[in-house]
TrEMBL record:
It is a multi-pass membrane protein. This is Probable peptidoglycan glycosyltransferase FtsW. It comes from Stakelama flava. The lineage of its organism: Bacteria, Pseudomonadati, Pseudomonadota, Alphaproteobacteria, Sphingomonadales. It is found in: Membrane. The chain crosses the membrane at residues 41-60, 80-98, 110-129, 149-165, 172-191, 197-214, 221-240, 304-325, 337-356, 368-391.
Amino acid sequence: MTDVWRGNGIGAVGVKARVEQQLGRASHSPLGVWFRDIDRVLLLLALILIAVGLVAVAAASPASAERYSDSTRQVPAMYYFWRQLGWVGMSIPVLLGVSMLPVNVARRMALLGSLAFLLCLAAVPLVGVDANGARRWIGYGFAQFQPSEFLKPCFIVTTAWILSFRAQDEKLPVMPITAALTGLIVFLLMLQPDFGQTIVFGSVWLILLLVAGISPRMMGALGALGIGGVVSAYMFYGTARARIDSFLFGDAAAGAADTYQTDMAHAVLTAGGITGRGPGAGTVKFRLPEAHTDYIYAVVGEEFGLIACAIITLLFMAIIVRVMVKLLEEDDAFRVLAAAGLVSQFGVQAMINMAVNTGLAPSKGMTLPFISYGGSSMIALSLGMGLLLAFTRRNPYLARTSYGTGWSG
């Protein structure tokens, strides 16, 4: 009977043969080509982060459920975990599907996405939904989404595409064009208000300019302009002033919000010590606002320890280093800029969230990529990671030709 099964390809040998046929070096099927070209290490790191995120949301869900329960509505303890599991189920196909796209198709999709989500962002002040004192969402009920989350990866690819023309003609006005686009987005974000996303967009734009090779003098001028922007925001933008005063002076600042969130995040983060109190054993987390989103890093610290927080940090660093090392061998200006921008957005957002959780930065309402709860965040990050995987795909068995011409046997 075993021989019959093997002969029909039903046994382990047959399954292995079929897998090798579909994914082996000689396979010309779309799945085989994708599996051969994709950066499997980068894909694995992303999937590990998503899995870690599910565990973290499961740990934070009871605290958030209790906080949002009242006499009229009792939220189940694992409510946010089950919802996040659903978002992950929707996001992974997005990640894998986008990673299979040819570079030119992925670029066109991002360009169209930039236009669509920029229009949505412009509509937020008019028809957006208020939440926690800010208007950042659009839509109704289950269909609500945050346009700025989806705009980030599309904006990065669009900016990379514009800046890549500088490699062909340095006289093209690519910097003013991208500056105008970034300025428009920053203006729309400040209307919401969303100071955290403003910092992400501005930081990634500066990084892309640096990768594109602008002069040190121009970079210094832009740095001074950025400092001037922060000072102006402090002087004329009430939300930014309140958060900066709260962070620097606490209750001593007249009119500033208190530091309860950042103080409590630090208390939760350190409550578990090096090894943590154990899954489900955290107690301080129940006093933490937004435990499942903005401050999930602190919840990980209480239940799984500072070692777990360090491992998460190393995972983010591994993704950044992996991409940057691969780009050292890349000749296509667009691919270099797009991949560098996408991984920079990933790293900047993680760094801001961790800085807030550890008390090194004022609260900004920034999620931790792939770890925090959220549908818009999870799907948009999967879109960005899919684009990153698409732009870093390369066939290891073929040799590079001259600039911009792809691969040659």
